[in-house]
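Example 448.
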Amino acid sequence: MSFTNKYVERVYNELAVKSADEKEFLQAVYEVFKAIEPALEGHPEYEKNGILERMVEPERFILFKVSWVDDQGKVRVNRAYRCQFNSAIGPYKGGLRLHPSVNASIIKFLGFEQTFKNSLTSLPMGGGKGGSDFDPKGKSDLEIMRFCQAFMTELYRHIGPDTDVPAGDIGVGAREVGYLFGQYKRIKNDFTGVLTGKGLTFGGSLARKEATGYGLCYFTREMLASKNTDFNGKKVVISGSGNVALYAMQKAQSLGARIIAMSDSSGYVVDENGLDFEVMRKLKEVDRKRIHEYCDLVKTATFHEGCRGIWTVPCDIALPCATQNEIDLESAKTLVANGCMCVSEGANMPSTAEAMDHFVSSGILYSPSKASNAGGVATSGLEMSQNSERLSWSFEEVDAKLEGIMKNIYKAAYDASCKYGYPGNLVVGANIAGFVKVAEAMIAQGVV
Ligand code: NDP
Ligand code: 2IT
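Predicted structure in complex with (2Z)-2-iminopentanedioic acid:
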C-alpha cells in the first residue's frame, strides 16, 4: 500500500491496524484514498478538521440478532447489521443485503462506498448499508416473510424517512421490501417513505426496479461516446442475472447491443446469437430458477460451470453485475487481451484492486461502481421526493430524470479527472467529485 500524501498514509495505516480483519472495508478505503490524493494537495483544512479520520468511522454501527421460526418449526438465528456511515449531506441511505457471506467488513465497505456514490447523485442522501447472513435461497415465501418481519422488529427503532431509508440489494427485492414495509407500518402505525423500492401500489416509484441497470447503460453510453462509439452491434458480457444484470441487459439490447453471456453463482450461459431478455427475466425474476435452466428453453445456449469463466468469453463490453471481487487480475488480463474495450461496473466493487489497476493502466474505458451504478440509489432518491410530495411521477418522467443524473455524474467525474491532472481516469474523477462535497459539508457542520 503506497501513498504519496502523508496525511492519507497516516490515516490508512492507523485504520489498517484497527480494522485488520476487515479486508473488503480496507480495500474500499484504499481505493478512495489513493484516488483522492491529488485533491488533498494544497488543502490543509482537510487534515485540520480530521476529515479522513472521521470519514472512515461509521457514525453508528448496529449489530443485532434476528430469531425466526422455519417451516419445520425449528428456531433459527441470524446475525444482522445496519451501518449508518455518514449523514453529512442527508439521511443515511442504502440497501439491505441478504446473503450468507454478509459480515461486518462487507457491510462497512458497502456503507463507505455508498456515502460517495450518493454524493455523486447530487441528491441529499447520506451513506448507509445493512443486511444479514440469512440465505434466502430455497426458503419458502412464508419463511422470507417471517424473517423480514423479525428483522424489522429490531430495525424499525433505528430508521425513519428523515433518519435512515433502507432499500434493496443482493437478496432483497420488491417482495422483501414489501414485507419489511408492512412490519414497519404495523409497529409504528405510520405510513411513510421509510424504505424505497416499494411496490407500485403503496408508494414505490415507477422505474426504480429498472433503474440500476438502465442507469449503468446510460453512464456507459457516455463513456462510449467519449471514444465516438456506442452500444450498437457490440458484444456484451454481463455477470449475474439478478435485478441489476437483467435491466442492464434490457437497456443494452434496446441500444443495439448483443448480450452473449450471463451468470449466476453456479455458472454461466453463452449464446453468440444473443440471449433472450423475456426468457431470462421470467426464468430469474418470476420463477427464481437457476441459470442453467435457460439452456432447456433456448437450445442454442450452452451452460458452463463456475462463475469466473464468464470473463474468458471474448466481448467488446463487460458489465460486472453480480458481486464484489468477481474480477481478479487474471480475469482482467484475459478480458483486455481478448479485446474488451470497456468495463463498466454495475455491482459494488466487482474488481479487485489489482484488476482495477490493470484496467486503468491498459487505457480501456473503465468506470468504478460508485459512479456507474448510482442510478439505483438516485431513483430511490426520486422515490423519496415523490413520497414527500405525495405524488407519483410517470415512468417516462422518472426515467428522463435518471438519464439526466447519470449524464451529470459522468460529466462531474470526467471534469474532475481533467481538473486534477488525470484526464479520462474515472476512478480519480468519481472519487474526488464524491469526496469533495461530503468533506465540505462535514467542515461546515463542525466537529460532530
Ligand atoms: P440480486 O440478488 O438481484 O442478484 C445478484 C446476482 O449476483 C445473482 O445472479 C447472484 O447469483 C449473483 N451473485 C451474488 N453473489 C454472488 C457470489 N458471491 N458469487 C457469484 N455470483 C453471485 O442482486 P442485485 O442485482 O440487486 O445486486 C447485484 C450487485 O449490484 C451487487 O453488488 C449490489 O450491491 C449491486 N447494486 C445493486 C443495486 C440495486 O438497486 N439492487 C444498486 C447498486 C448496486 P445467485 O442467484 O446464484 O446467488
Ligand atoms: O448499492 C446500492 O446503491 C443499492 N443497493 C441501492 C441503494 C438504495 O438505497 O436504493
